[in-house]
Amino acid sequence: GQALLGWASAPLCARLVRKGLVIMRSSRLSVLRGHLCARSVGAVCDGPVGFVGLGNMGLPMASNLLKSGRELFVYDVNPTPLEALRAQGAQVCASPAEIGAVARSVITMLPSNEIIRQVYLGPDGLLSTIKEGTILIDCSTSEPGVARELADAAAKTGSRLFDAPVSGGYMGAEQATLTFMVGGPEDGFQAAEELLSPMGNRVVHCGDVGMGHAAKLCNNLLLVITMTGLSEAHALGGRLGLDQKTLANIISTSSGRCWSAD
After folding, report:
1. What pLDDT, in 10s, does the model give residues 21-59?
2. 189 in the same domain as 146
3. Are residues 233 and 175 in the same domain?
4. What confidence score (pLDDT) does residue 45 get?
């Protein structure tokens, strides 16, 4: 790779770097990569995107990315969604590490902290092969501390991690109407926003790494409170002899209306 740069033009070098075909070790390459990263909103967003975690939320999200014209590389332990996305034009990878080696940005949607750590930090994980300048976006429901742990590990590879949990549920994922609550460096938010926009209609920068998860925790707390209150209201109405359908209709058009009642 280094010998190649003795004769290659700067535009060619840039193309090779974007495609991950040159491993940059020399000072000249480092300068070139720094230049590419400085204008990297376009380079990252237009480059190959990886997606790991294709469950009830991840599969429709990845499908919407494909519909937006992205070049998509996907991985999941379940072969069924992989084949569904292959039929739509995605390229299937054998591991998170394989995705890390080819993608300029990676989105994950995973079910637990244990699996999140395995996908990012494991011996065959994303960070074992990720290229410098890559943007990593974890859309899983997790914790601020986990996001900071991953961001610190990503920084050692020269990549940047954002936490971006979602609200909107399966229907929002299907219809590309999700809200993304994003935590991460402000100077990289534009690139993250461009990557997430094909999957949702609202992308909100909440602050530093971990603040996306903090926002979702607060939102979910309020949701639980309203769900509990709605259940108690119906229980009280039943004890007082109110018809449950009548009460539901009243609540849905009155001051007690909430997302849980809709």
Report:
1. 444 443 443 444 444 444 445 555 679 999 999 999 999
2. yes
3. no
4. 61
Q: Would you please indicate which residues are annotated as catalytic (active-site) residues?
A: 216
User: Residues 43, 18: contact at Cβ < 8 Å?
Assistant: yes
Q: Does one domain contain both 25 and 81?
A: no
Q: State whether 20 and 50 are in the same domain.
A: no
Supply the pTM of this predicted model.
Answer: 0.80
The domain total for the chain is: 3
Tokens of 56: 């009830």
139 with 185, same domain: the answer is yes
pLDDT tens-digit readout, 84-138: 999 999 999 999 999 999 999 999 999 999 999 999 999 999 999 999 999 999 9
Domain of residue 27: give its range. 3-38
d(CA 43, CA 15): 10
- The answer to whether 178 and 164 have CB atoms below 8 angstroms apart is no
The rounded Cα 160 to chain-centroid distance in angstroms is 12
Q: Same domain for 254 and 147?
A: no
Q: What are phi and psi of 168, to 5 degrees?
A: 135, -15
**H or E element, residue 148:** helix 144-155
Using the structure block, give the residue that is written with the tokens 């999200």: 61
